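Could someone model TNX with this protein?
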Amino acid sequence: WAGYGYSISDFEVWDSSPAAPAPTLGLLPRPVSVLERAEAPYTLQRGTPIVAAGANAAAPANHLAGILRRSTGYPLPVLGSATAAAPIVVDVGPGKGPAGQAAEGYRLTVDATRVYIGADTANGALNAVQTLRQLFPQWVESRTVVAATWTVPAVTIADHPRFAHRGMMLDVARSFYPVAEVKAYIDAAAQYKINRLHLHLTDDQGWRIAIDNPASNPSAINYPLLTQVSGATAMTYSPTGQLMGTELGVTGFYTKADYAEIVRYAGVNGMTVIPEVDVPGHTNAALHAIPQLNTAGAQPQRPAGAATVPANGTGSVGYSSLDAAAAVTYEFVRQVLTQIAAMTPGPYLHIGGDEAHVTGHADYTAMVDAFTAQVAALGRTVIGWNEYAGSALPQNNAVVQYWNGDRTAVANAVNTRGAKVVLSPAPHTYVPQKQDARQPLGGTWACGGVCGLDRHYNWDPGTFIPGIAQSSVLGVESALWGEFIRRVGQAQYYSFPRLLATAEVGWTPQAQRDYADFRLRLSVAGGRLTLQGVNFFPTADVAWR
Ligand code: TNX
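Reply:
Sure, complex below.
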């Protein structure tokens, strides 16, 4: 056998025992270095405490305790570092993780008497927690208490991610996901070390984030109308013209308190929230809600006598635009970005910029240049879809998210403006594309047919954009567009298991990735996902067991 699960440096301590059938710890994503030792396993006991050593260890230690309590029924108290000889130790501080991997690296060592997690940061320790839970029997994922022997095999793991950005995008604009559903989606993804939650908050069909009236309001815009009017609209048709019948898009919106709760919950799970306000196209919902935006150059034009344009719940794209010539456009976008920045602790604000098909080139550039400058003025890093790559992006302070089209423009933005890149190429990361021909709904444009698990796994983000240094690639992101996807159960059905491919593409060194090996590990994940209630698609590409 081919040294499955081992790194080269481990071979010196590996004896020459005969071939064994497909040994697998089933770890997803595959860690950089795993040494499975032929020793007695660790067994969790009812009386075991978890020790949090270091100020930043409490959160990951509590997260671990929360995961283990649910199925074991053990109390698993989390203690301060006074009792450092305890069997489970979460040790966070400088130099505790693997050398040179301070941001997210971790060590995980298990022997018969002890589980040790060492990391420089809380996020590193959280990554170790997600690995450790996968080493327990699958019943650890049960939502009710199970009588089991809770063993963990003796291992030595040293691990860190290939890319800092391992994201997932949820389109809450076409069809809304209430906070509880977002949390369920976070839970399912966080276990695979997905660490960015990109919320597509606004589009033609709906506006999902509450904005208050500011003290200074030159155009007297009634900002709460955004959600009062356009929180009540959503998709009505699929883009292929199939009537959605009872599955109309879900309406709703996040209050500022809801959004804060999503940010908090994401943070507990190691995820940074990236809010997107899509401008200058994809803005019918804003034009429908706010009369002042309906100036002469805005698209579509409001009917004679009407204050705003009608709601449009179809899936057509590229028909709406803000007006580059109207001062109110810039006042509005600045106010929205300012309020969203104030409730977003993460460093990024996403301004969309995609598919502005009715916006003239000069108008598009004028608006995007202004909006990217507004984000920079708010002290944040702007992200936009790759259509905006040719704009005057803030120097060394912009991210291009590639989905389709011209890769040369992305390379130019990197090489002339110091931009970074997040990769969401449609054939490799778009989950509303069909993953199996039997799926009744789903796009086929990205792959000329099915975009199966293999397409999501077999690509290299490091070489995808020719002519840029790999260090310019922040990472990868799965994109869930919502034209025909309703509720978290369907979202999971389209995302899983392909999101696990993206998770591994973003985490594991290219040279250690292998599709057959991935499918083997994935085959044992189905039981865990089932116990968690994650509605994954049982693709025929995997021999589920
Ligand atoms: C293109 S990808 C869009 C979205 C659609 C998606 C799928 C991108 C930046 N824009 O508006 O939802 O295709 O139809």
